[in-house]
Request: fold
Amino acid sequence: MTVEYKLTIRTGTKLGAGTDADISIVLVGTRGESAPRVLDKHFHNDFEAGAEDVYALSSEDLGDLVLLRFSNAGGVAADWLLDWAIVTAGEKQWHFPFYRWVLSGATVDVLEGTAKLARQASSERESTARRELLEARQRMYPWRAPEMTEGLPGALDLREGRPLPKDELYRGLTEGSYEVVIAKTLAAIKLNLPMLTRAWNGLVDIFDFFKHLEVPQLAQRWKDDLEFARQAVQGIAPLHITLVPSLPQGMPLTDDDVRGLLSPGTTLARALDAKRIFLIDFEILDDIRMYRKVGEDGVEERRWAPAARCLLYLDDQRQLRPLAIQLGRDAQKDPVFTPNDDAYDWLAAKIYLRCSEGNSHQMVSHALRTHFVAEPFVMATMRNLPDPHPVYKLLRRHFRYTLAINEGARKGLLDAGGVFDDFIATGGPDKGHLQLGKKGFQRWTLADNKPRADLERRGVLDPAVLPNYPYRDDALPLWDAFEEYVGGVLRHFYRTDADLEADTEMQQWWKDLTEHGLPVDKLPCRELRRVDDLVDILTTVLFTVSVQHAAVNYLQYEHYAFVPNAPLSMRREPPRQKGTLRAEDIPEMIPTKSQMLWQVAIGRALSSFGDDEEYLLHEGGWREEYFHEPELVAIRQRFQERLRAQREAVEARNAGAEVPYTILRPDRIPCGITV
Reply:
């Protein structure tokens, strides 16, 4: 019996997505294959970017379609970006989501898109197609040798002759590629550099950098103590503030030191008992090698970012204020500074503390705990889960560009000669920034990326203890929405724990992840046997690459671009005595003009959104849709409804806020790590 098949094929919208090459197709079903057919309509330009082309094809009845085999005949600029295809025959319809490239001269099998576990495959042909797809992916996505990532998460192996797969290439956009944004920012600043004074004063002349750029809002209030404390709960690194029951060891602070800084009649002991003293501590920098290099002129350059710590006090108005700062751990040589000290001593102490925060943030909170811990999950997914697997469908959109941006960061920022060497305290020949990343990874487990557990561990989960904590109040509802969404999808397929144990593809995913990506002791279970564990792991991954990355990334321009607020290196050793600093000493401590230039440019680049950015709450829906089953669409719609409610909550809270915190608005959180 002859069947008429109608094919609707959508080409992607990226630059270069369309093709003039001959594209042919074979329909493969449970009863056989169609003859090859070139898809070409007379007097029509097939496969233009963003186009939906419709074709008719007659064949013997092929049964249920298993896959579409597309062949690209090749030519000049012939690569073709296929979004999806839909095939109908009478009352039957099959979906084929793809969102990847069909390269010049290549043939690819696009599997039918109904979400299925391996054991649910309807035919041996379907099972074979899943295996063949994974064999090809494993060749495309090899792990780096263990010695190349020692002390860090596993990563994709890239080298000469083994480039990044085209499906993973970073967007080549005007306002997307951070290299482009860096270049544009540097150009805008350099237009004005000839006007800058020769006698550079970084505290004053920094404003001249912004003649062609937006001035960070905190530039006018950065010296204020309330602003300093605000950044601990809604700044670029809101993950450190911790309730403490006693003074840190080695921090000699007395009631005389804080006279007039606490509520009337309150002592340090009473404030600690009343749960009004908090700590931010960067002891992780202790023993980390700092920049030290002798130049060609024989002059040694050094930089500092001390293992600093700060106590904050919740006053009677329920506002946080910095109470004391120590720029080291040694009670004998590292004095404790307070607002009662000389103004320049106190200002310098705050600047050094922010420098310490910045070095810890860049390598641990940001690079390690979002970018690099995500990469093993991308790798395990691409190597072990075929397109129809529900976990692949759940994760894929959130992994867009992550491999490319990580490789770009390694080469452009972290490697020897990268821009971090130009201006960050832990950069340089001794690779202190990599030592810091490894130290952070040694201490880290995936559970640390779960916000509720982390907040509880730090004693700041309860709003009665710390009332104004916007990061907490925005992150938790988003976690809960993700947990419901991920759990709904997974439990639709894994009705029991036995279903998960029997999923051979998911078990291979786990084996690959733990052997090459992350040591099993970094994960919440040693074996993947419980559905609850998988829900927990994947919720943490999706929260990390979207919400958590947004929190620690997209405020970088606001936080770092006005460099005196948070310099990434200090050019003098921290002061060891009080009362010796003068006004002219502060500009000599903070970065040079050249270092500031780099910090402004990098901060702007890393805070930028791309033209093709896809947000958690995206107007018109997500561009890449992998599920089409009604039950799964309903789960996704429920997720979107929760995100809309959270957007309204963020807007309502910020309506009366003196300094709004909007970085975790769901419609401004990218789905994944894209910069």
